[in-house]
Amino acid sequence: MKDVIICRCEEVSLGDIEAAKDNGMITSQEIKMATRLGMGMCQGRICRSLIDLYMTDQTPQGMLQPSSLTVHVPVRPVSLCQIAAKGDRA
Question: Is the torsion defined by CA of 44, 11, 39, 80 positive or negative?
Answer without folding.
Answer: negative
